[in-house]
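Colleagues,

For the teaching module next term, I've prepared a clean inverse folding example: a structure given as tokens, and then the sequence designed for it. I'd like students to try predicting residues themselves before seeing the answer, so please don't circulate the second half yet.
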């Protein structure tokens, strides 16, 4: 069944249309600051991911924004949704900070609510005396894996 809704462009200057194949069209993006629009879309993406993770849905390894590749994190361009405990780094990778993260040596790291001077989440581990920025951990001790129900994913 098709349903149509008329949208007031004054109230909603940007529209995102996504078809059943996942292809998207963005309309009206010239009416809004691109950086503000990107930040808004990042927050929405983080919320959707948080909802799916809460439902027990784990993303595929090649899902956009989930796979942590060898590219730099660009923490200075990241955004944090404190309520959802999601950090989206400057390259678009989504980090669920509500979960512990395990490094390649087996140490488990947990976010404790603070960011470093560059905007990266500071992580703590019982194996280390000082908190460490997530971007540095990923570079020095990566790859990092989220820990679900007592085991790394």
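(Answer key — instructors only)
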């Amino acid at each position: 069944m098709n349903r149509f809704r008329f949208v007031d462009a004054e109230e909603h200057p940007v529209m995102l249309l996504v078809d059943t194949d996942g292809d998207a069209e963005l309309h009206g993006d010239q009416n809004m600051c691109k950086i503000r629009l990107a930040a808004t879309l990042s927050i929405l993406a983080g919320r959707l991911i948080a909802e799916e993770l809460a439902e027990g849905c784990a993303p595929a390894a090649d899902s956009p924004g989930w796979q942590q590749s060898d590219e730099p994190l660009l923490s200075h361009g990241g955004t944090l949704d404190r309520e959802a405990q999601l950090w989206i780094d400057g390259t678009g990778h989504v980090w669920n900070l509500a979960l512990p993260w395990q490094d390649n040596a087996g140490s488990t790291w947990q976010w404790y609510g603070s960011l470093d001077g560059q905007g990266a989440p500071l992580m703590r581990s019982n194996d280390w005396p000082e908190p460490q920025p997530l971007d540095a951990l990923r570079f020095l001790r990566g790859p990092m894996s989220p820990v679900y129900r007592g085991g790394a994913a």
